[in-house]
Amino acid sequence: MDPLLQEIIMLPGVLGCFVFNGKQQIAGSKMPSSFKESNTKAIGNLLARTAQIGAMAQLSLKEIEIRYNEFLLMSKPLPKESLLIIICEPDANKSLISITIGMLAEDIAKALENPQAFQAKPGKPSPGTQKQQAPVEEKEAEISEELSPVLEQVRDALAMAIGPVAGSIMKDIIEIWAKQAPPSLTTIPALAELLCPEIDDDGLEEEFMTAIKEITG
C-alpha cells in the first residue's frame, strides 16, 4: 500500500495521507512526523463518524471535505467502512487530488483486503493507473536534445493536472505521437491533444492547454 500512498503525497499541497479501517485502526500511513499517531487516529475517528452519520441519513457520500484555517481534510470512502484520508494545505488543488485518489482508490482497497498479495513493482505505475502500452518490439521514439527540455515542461504541466502518473503516461503517448509525424516543437500541440483525454476534467484540461501555449510560444 505504501507505493500507492506515496503517489498521493507527491501531489502539490498534500501534507500526508493514511487509511483508516472499519476497526478504527490505521491500516497504512504516509503522515509527516509532526502528526502523532494519536492525532492521526483522532482525525480518522472524526471522519469515520461523519461517514456514519451520512449513512444513517441514507446519504451516499463520494467524498468528505472539512476545512480548517491550518489545513484541509479530504476523505474518500473505501469498502468495509474504511476511509482514505488526505491532509492538505488550505489552497491545495482539490480537483487534482480528487482525480488522483479516484484513480488509486480501487487499488488501495485491494491492498487493504490483501496487503501481501498486492505489491506495486518498482518503476511501474500502479495497476489502476496503467495506460495503453506501446508494443514491446517497437523502438522508442527518438527525441532530439533540443526537444527534450520542452517535453519535460509538457510533462510537468500534465503532472499539475493528473499527478505523478504523468511521467508514465507521457512515455506511452509520445510513442503514439512520434508515429504521426517526426517529433518537433511545431507538433507539440498534437501531443497535447493526445494527452488531453487522460485528464478527464474540463477545468484542468483548459489549464493544461494554456500551459502548452506558453511552452510553444
Adjacency order of strands in the biggest sheet: 2-1-5-4-3
Uncertain ranges:
120-139
Percent range for β-strand residues: 5-15%
The count of strands amounts to 5
What is the oligomeric state here? single chain
Basic shape: elongated
Please give the radius of gyration in angstroms. Answer: 19 Å
Major β-sheet annotation: 5 strands, antiparallel
Q: Tell me what the CATH architecture of the largest domain is.
A: 2-Layer Sandwich
The number of helices is: 7
Report the helical percentage.
40-55%
Q: What is the SS-derived class?
A: alpha+beta
Average pLDDT score: 80
Can you walk through the features of this model?
The protein is of the alpha+beta class and 217 residues long. It folds into 2 domains: 2-113, Dynein light chain 2a, cytoplasmic (Beta-Lactamase, 2-Layer Sandwich); 131-216, no CATH class. 47% of the residues lie in helices and 14% in strands. It contains 7 helices and 5 strands, in the order αββαβββααααα. It has helices spanning 2-9, 37-56, 94-113, 148-162, 166-180, 188-195, 202-216; strands at 14-20, 26-30, 64-67, 72-78, 82-88. A 5-stranded antiparallel β-sheet has the order 2-1-5-4-3. The radius of gyration is 19 Å and the shape is elongated. Mean pLDDT is 80; it is low at 120-139.
